């Protein structure tokens, strides 16, 4: 595939058994956006780190986000950067507005509810502990994203049994083909 792919992990980063880590290992040209502090995210700092990573790409990248990484993508899209993304593949967006969110949202709340300026897909579970089914759908509608609901899949991470996650990789590869044609 031509073009850059940036992996946006969420809170605590994605461990070695997470689908993001497996996909990054399989597609050597894809790279993870690194953060100074994975455990105590500060929105403005993470947005600046993402903006720098997008700026280092040869062209407009596709963002592949999980959990808080989805909120990072939405905040970056709203930050006024002159840089652009070709698209965003947003998996299991965490609802940082929910009282049950596990840490201080450090500027990530409220969730940006403006249309994203690039094509996007929201992939969500029906029983994610970090976002209700209704909120995931509301995010997709607000962002102008295609919504893909995959049934009861928890938070779509390694703990929920989504290590290699070939179905997700197939969905992503289809999305990459769509945004790059």
From TrEMBL:
Keywords: Hydrolase. The keyword Hydrolase applies. One of its GO terms (molecular function) is hydrolase activity. Signal peptide: none annotated. InterPro entries: AB_hydrolase_fold (IPR029058), RBBP9/YdeN (IPR010662). The lineage of its organism: Bacteria, Pseudomonadati, Pseudomonadota, Betaproteobacteria, Burkholderiales. It comes from the Bacteria. It comes from Massilia jejuensis. Gene3D superfamilies: alpha/beta hydrolase. This is RBBP9/YdeN family alpha/beta hydrolase. SUPFAM superfamilies: alpha/beta-Hydrolases. The keyword NAD does not apply.
């Amino acid at each position: 595939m031509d073009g850059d792919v940036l992996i946006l992990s969420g809170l605590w980063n994605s461990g070695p058994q997470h689908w993001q880590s497996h996909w990054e290992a399989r597609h050597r040209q894809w790279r993870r956006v690194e953060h100074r502090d994975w455990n105590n995210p500060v929105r403005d700092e993470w947005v600046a780190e993402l903006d720098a990573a997008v700026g280092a790409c040869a062209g407009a990248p596709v963002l592949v986000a999980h959990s808080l990484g989805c909120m990072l993508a939405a905040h970056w899209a709203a930050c006024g950067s002159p840089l652009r993304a070709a698209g965003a593949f947003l998996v299991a967006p965490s609802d940082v507005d929910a009282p049950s969110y596990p840490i201080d949202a450090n500027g990530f709340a409220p969730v940006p509810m403006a249309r994203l300026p690039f094509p996007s897909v929201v992939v969500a579970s029906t029983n994610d502990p970090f976002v209700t089914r209704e909120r995931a759908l509301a995010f997709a509608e607000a962002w102008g994203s295609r919504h893909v609901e995959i049934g009861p899949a928890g938070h779509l991470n390694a703990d929920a049994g989504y290590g290699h996650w070939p179905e997700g990789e197939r969905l992503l590869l289809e999305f990459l083909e769509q945004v790059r044609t």
